[in-house]
Write a structure and sequence with these properties.
Blueprint (H helix, E strand, L loop, with lengths): L5 H36 L7 H9 L4 H36 L11 H14 L6 H23 L5 H25 L7 H4 L10 H19 L1 H7 L3 H6 L4 H23 L5 H15 L6 H26 L2 H4 L4 H19 L17 H24 L7 H8 L5 H35 L11 H15 L5 H23 L6 H25 L2 H11 L8 H20 L1 H7 L4 H5 L4 H23 L5 H13 L3 H25 L8 H21 L1
Helix pairs in contact: 1-3, 1-13, 2-3, 3-8, 3-11, 3-12, 3-13, 4-5, 4-6, 4-11, 5-6, 5-11, 6-21, 6-29, 8-11, 8-13, 12-13, 13-15, 15-21, 16-28, 18-23, 18-26, 18-27, 18-28, 19-20, 19-21, 19-22, 19-26, 20-21, 20-26, 21-22, 23-26, 27-28, 28-29
Length: 688
């Protein structure tokens, strides 16, 4: 009996596990079916459940039948297809990379597809849907390859998120530049980028469905090899699995699925991240779901439920006439951002603080010579920015203008140009100082206000005023930006403070807050009128267009206060940036000092955003380059970083308004184009 007793006990356990897995699958299928039924009954037309039933049974009038067959059924089917392929793609990418944050969003697949389609639209190409899918596929695949190559498969969540978010910022900046330069050719592309499952007929669904089926079938056939990768590369090779070929094939199939969804509905955010995460606890409970062959379809079902649920929730909460204008992707992005923040707050951080930069100690001569060169460059660049533009001026014209003796034309040009140059200089200096403070407090050389969500939070507050109060002045916009930045910073730094601002939690929470803020900004722009939408988009591009001298006053005051505090407390900055123990041993109140520096960085970021829009990467590049030039002591880093930031933004603004004159590109777009390669270079160097 001792020998046979375990056998009957084991069989019921295995059978119970299979029964439980089947029950979970059936319950999820019922949920998807119920959401699909509800989704069909929602809409702006007065076509309720009874009319839908009559349409299915052939007893409805022509109008009601047309609404159901031509609009609601295609929308519901598109939501099912998009959710299924994105959920499956996310689960496959996570299994292949052994990284729980891999998804079409974090791998920049959506941003790559967005840029590829933007380039096609800007060149005037009119492509059929299948050809558009091919273009989007190539763009998304290239972006994913770059991110995976930079981050390294299985190298950790932080590196993946940093590489993906940096590349997404850069690619999106280029695409938004195309939107501003070619408004007619790219009309509707911004709204498409928010992700909407609304359809006019079944044409799009019928063309994309075969692509989705091919991708799903390919991943299911690849499932056993993907499972072998979880054992490690050496073990997988030991059982005869070609590791590199399996990964490449899996990424290509996942990219194919993602781009079919992107082509059909635009980028519907975070479904590929959330759906596998919802399935993961089930895999720990039911052994049947530990295998990719069962887990991938289950993740597809979870993705379909997420997209359908978001669509149903949107039209249940928001009035139907407003819900029509709000893309489903905005809702999924908000849900996904909240999910990511909660997951990041609960994650156990094993990465520790980022290692400090290995920099040589620089002499005083190096510091003085560097400062002198930067001052000379800044003066020359400022003069060039004032003189060069759509109208070229001479130094004598500027002197006459300053003395009030210039002509009407020269006065008009300088009255509009000088405030722009001043705003660019001050914004660059403020963002550089904010980045210096954040990197010192967090001891993370890859942290900056943009990556940590502070800049996007400030943008939410400012865009809210720009779109709802068109007459709002510079002080009002600055106050709104500061309120948004303060809320974002309180959330990011408050959640990351647990455990001492460790790298994983800080970056993940910041990424979630930045993404959620971006979704709110998109919602505000979509719901406002076209004039305010264009105004907000131009402002978000980091444009100094239309700035006046009063607009720069709040920023000048904040920068003066920030510089005074940073110089006065330079020794404290050095101590805070070392470690946790040294400041306490010297009697420093680490918590209060850290909070003070963070609040100051929020003030600087918010006023910079209010004056010049969202300008990315300056808070990352300038402090990092300053430490490389003059060492780690903040008495030297602060002035050099401030000068570098002012030079970078002023140069970006000058190039943006002269390179393709009379058309203009915002300084934020130019700094993103410059900063993205530099940031990716830092990732590669740190990996070495």
């Amino acid at each position: 009996m001792a020998v046979t007793a375990p056998t009957p006990a084991t069989r019921p356990s295995t059978a119970a596990a299979r029964t439980g897995a089947a029950a979970v699958t059936a319950a999820l299928l019922l949920l998807v079916a119920a959401l699909a039924v509800v989704d069909i009954t929602q809409g702006t037309a007065a076509v309720g459940p009874s009319e839908v039933w009559k349409a299915f049974t052939g007893r409805a009038d022509a109008g009601d039948a047309s609404v159901v067959i031509a609009s609601r059924l295609p929308r519901m089917t598109a939501a099912l297809l998009v959710g299924a392929v994105l959920g499956t793609a996310g689960a496959a990418l996570q299994a292949i990379s052994r990284n729980v944050l891999a998804s079409p969003d974090t791998l920049a697949v959506n941003a790559g597809s967005y840029l590829a389609l933007g380039l096609a639209a800007a060149t005037g190409l009119s492509l059929p849907l299948l050809a558009s899918s091919g273009v989007a596929f190539l763009g998304g695949l290239l972006a994913a390859a770059v991110v995976l190559g930079l981050s390294g498969l299985g190298a950790g969540t932080v590196r993946l998120v940093l590489a993906g978010s940096a590349l997404t910022l850069g690619l999106t900046a280029v695409t938004e530049g195309l939107l501003l330069l070619f408004p007619q050719e790219t009309q509707g592309l911004y709204k498409w980028n928010q992700g909407s499952v609304a359809q006019s007929g079944f044409d799009g669904v019928l063309q994309m469905a075969p692509i989705g089926v091919v991708g799903l079938a390919g991943l299911v056939l690849l499932a056993r090899k993907v499972d072998a990768l979880a054992l490690g590369d050496d073990a997988a090779r030991g059982v005869g699995v070609p590791v590199r070929a399996t990964r490449v094939t899996g990424v290509v199939l996942a990219a194919l699925l993602s781009t079919s969804a992107v082509t059909l509905a635009g980028p519907v955010g975070f479904v590929g991240l959330c759906a596998p995460a919802l399935v993961r606890p089930l895999a720990r409970r039911f052994r049947a779901f530990t295998r990719s062959r069962a887990r991938l379809p289950l993740a597809g079902l979870a993705g379909a439920a997420l997209v359908l649920g978001s669509d149903v929730l949107l039209r249940a909460v928001v009035p139907s006439d407003v819900a029509v204008a709000v893309p489903t992707g905005v809702v999924t992005s908000l849900v996904g951002a909240l999910f990511l923040v909660v997951m990041a707050a609960r994650v156990r951080d094993t990465a520790g603080a980022a290692p400090p930069d290995k920099l040589r100690i620089r002499s005083r001569t190096v510091f003085v010579s560097t400062t002198v060169v930067l001052v000379a460059v800044l003066v020359g660049l400022t003069i060039a920015a004032v003189l060069v533009g759509d109208s070229k001026l001479l130094l004598g014209d500027v002197v006459n203008w300053a003395q009030g003796r210039a002509g009407q034309t020269v006065s008009f040009v300088l009255d509009t140009r000088v405030p722009r140059v001043l705003a660019a200089l001050l914004a660059g200096a403020a963002l550089a100082l904010a980045g210096t403070l954040i990197q010192a407090v967090t001891r993370n050389p890859l942290a900056d206000p943009g990556i940590l969500g502070v800049t996007n939070g400030a943008a939410v507050g400012a865009v809210l005023l720009v779109t709802t109060v068109p007459t709002a002045g510079s002080w009002s916009i600055a106050a709104g930006a500061f309120a948004g930045a303060a809320i974002s910073a309180a959330l990011v730094f408050g959640l990351a403070a647990k455990g001492g601002f460790q790298q994983n939690r800080l970056v993940l929470v910041g990424f979630g807050v930045a993404t959620g803020s971006a979704a709110v900004i998109s919602l505000l722009i979509i719901l406002t009128d076209p004039f305010n939408a264009t105004k907000a988009l131009t402002w978000l591009a980091g444009s100094t267009y239309g700035r006046t001298l009063p607009d720069a006053v709040p920023l000048a005051i904040a920068l003066a206060v920030g510089l005074a505090v940073a110089v006065a407390r330079r020794t404290e900055l050095d101590l805070v940036s070392l470690d946790e123990d040294t400041p306490r041993l010297l009697g420093l109140d680490l918590g209060r000092g850290r909070l003070g520096f963070l609040l100051l960085s929020v003030l600087l970021s918010a006023t910079a955003v209010a004056a010049a829009g969202t300008i990315g990467f300056v808070g990352l590049v300038a402090p990092h380059a300053a430490r490389a030039l003059v060492g780690r002591r903040h008495v030297r880093v602060v002035p050099v970083a401030v000068l570098l930031g002012a030079v970078l933004v002023c140069a970006a603004d000058l190039v943006g308004r002269t390179a393709i004159a009379p058309a203009q590109l915002g300084a934020g777009l130019m700094t993103a184009v410059i900063g993205t390669p530099y940031f990716l270079y830092l990732l590669v160097r740190s990996r070495r």
